[in-house]
Amino acid sequence: MRKQIGIVDDHPAVILGLSSIINVNSGLFVSGVGGSVAELLLQGAHFDLVLLDLTLGDGSRPADNVRVLASKGIPVLVYTSGDQPQLIREAGRAGAMGMVRKTERPKKILEAIASVLRGEVAATTDWAVAIDADDEFVSAALTDREMQVLALYASGETAERVAQQLFISRETVLDHIRRIRTKYAAIDRPAPSKLDLYRRAVEDGIIPRQR
Fold first, then answer.
1. Which CATH number belongs to the domain containing residue 183 in this structure?
2. Which of 54, 91, 103, 194 is deepest in the core (most CB within 10 A)?
3. Model pTM score
4. Helix ranges, 62-158 (H)
5. 211 within domain boundaries
6. Based on the domain organization, do 49 and 123 belong to the same domain?
7. CA dihedral sign of residues 28, 170, 112, 87
8. Would you put residue 131 in left (φ > 0), alpha (ψ -120 to 50) or beta?
9. How many Å apart are CA 175 and CA 94, to the nearest integer?
10. CB atoms within 10 A of CB 129
């Protein structure tokens, strides 16, 4: 089944170009576009990922846009000209899964989309530089809830079982896992796989090493 991608941008030419790049991939399909997050969500379509422009004409902040989408369990990949590190950091703190430049080659854009769809962080050089400069974000520890989720998930539980044990939804569990991966990637300790998450949890004393 093709993954459904949403695009939030208020420049029709950019939307047309991105749609053309995405739709040539047999595993992807642009299922909705909008000049704002509200406009996109009003369409009622399903989205496996949303490409979000950092600067929109409606004056909305990247953090607010990312949080709205994340609250609905939608992973966010921001794309930008790359010269707005403060906005990139803001999106990262809110839970964006990475960024890609608007000027990137189609292959790189598709690779970034594929990474996020796998639950990994699309950590480009621009993303890493912007996040690394944010001392508050880099030094941020996992929240109590994130540690609970990580302890269960890294120990071998499925997202469904974690949700049942913590009395939250599966989508909320997956959102926590994305945020955990983003935090680890931001401090040069990437955890793209479940095994990597287990290693990080052991290293940080969140779960005991299995013998």
1. 1.10.10.10
2. 91
3. 0.65
4. 62-71, 85-94, 106-117, 125-132, 135-138, 144-154
5. no
6. yes
7. positive
8. alpha
9. 11
10. 12
